[in-house]
Amino acid sequence: MGTSENASHTTDKKSHDTLYTIQDENKGMKTVKIMITEAAEKQLIERTAGKQGVFKIEYDTEDCCAVNGIAMLWFVSTPNEEDGAAETNGLPVFVEKAKEIFFDENMIIDFVPAKGCFQLKSPNQYFNPCMSFIDKTKTA
Question: What's the pLDDT score for residue 139?
Fold first, then answer.
């Protein structure tokens, strides 16, 4: 099945304007819908000001089996070929297509100021109540 996703996200620290485009030709596959709260969007824009990239929900299974992974929020330069664009209310977010099975169809990314962390949740459960944000665009 031929799929093609192209996305870009640029933030301007002074104006907090967000520019993004997404093209997703991944027809017939499950579409994850992610609502980004105002608090989360503000934090994501601030943390990526002036950088080029996209957000990705990573289901990390390192040091454990595939069914016991943990959701993490990454900022990456470009999505991988195996990533699919989630339907969002704003910023572009990608999820690895093979890992969509571990998530609900409708999810929320929120920010909790008291804890200084993001949350990934759905009406049914918390996938990660204190999700780290990792900027993978940084060079060593």
Answer: 54
CA distance 124 to 129: 13
- Show the tokens assigned to 25: 């030709």
Residues 44 and 81: beta-carbon distance below 8 Å = no
| CATH number belonging to domain 5-135 | 2.60.300.12
Half-sphere exposure of 82 (CA within 13 A, CB side): 7
Over the stretch 78-127, which tens digit does the pLDDT of each residue have? 999 999 999 999 899 999 888 888 889 999 999 999 999 999 999 999 99
Distance of CA 111 to the CA centre of its chain: 13
Percent with pLDDT over 90 in the chain = 57
**DSSP single-letter state for residue 37:** P
User: What is the phi-psi region of residue 43: left when phi exceeds 0, alpha when psi lies from -120 to 50, beta otherwise?
Assistant: alpha
Residue 12 in this model has a pLDDT that exceeds 60:
no
User: Is 114 exposed, middle or buried, given 0-12, 13-18 or 19+ CB atoms closer than 10 A?
Assistant: exposed
Amino acid type, 57: I
Residue spans per domain, the chain: 5-135
